[in-house]
Amino acid sequence: MFEPFGILGANDESKGKGLVQWGYSFTEEEYYWLADTSQDPSTWPVVARVDPLEPFQRFDMTASEFVYRVLTEAEFSAFSVAATIETPYYRTF
Could you give the CA distance from residue 81 to residue 38 in angstroms, rounded to a whole number? Predict the structure, then answer.
């Protein structure tokens, strides 16, 4: 389900590498850091997928840049909501 990366710390074979989920959308999109504990966390790329049955896509950028681009750039991959939402809004829980 998480191939080819696996979940960070899920087994002894991960050796400090794997996915750490940091977000999801109401339309089943999933957002992860591709973590490597030997590296500075600020350098971890984002991997995401539109559907749990689809392969991951890698983005060599911070999570904040990824979220910004999802919200503001209509042409930003399959994850953009800029063309479908007139004004972004945020919900707090």
Answer: 34
Q: What is the structure's pLDDT at 11?
A: 62
The Cα 27–Cα 52 span in angstroms is 11
CB atoms within 10 A of CB 56: 18
Would you state the structure tokens that stand for residue 2, as one six-digit string?
Answer: 């998480």
Three-state SS string across the chain, please? CCCCCCECCCCHHHCCEEEEEEEECCCCCEEEEEEECCCCHHHCCEEEECCCCCCCEEECCCHHHHHHHHHHCCCCCCCCCCCCCCCCCCCCC
List, for residues 55-76, the tens digit of each pLDDT value.
Answer: 999 999 999 999 999 988 988 8
> pLDDT-derived band of residue 30, with 50, 70 and 90 as boundaries?
very high
Residues forming beta bridges with residue 78, ordered by sequence position: none
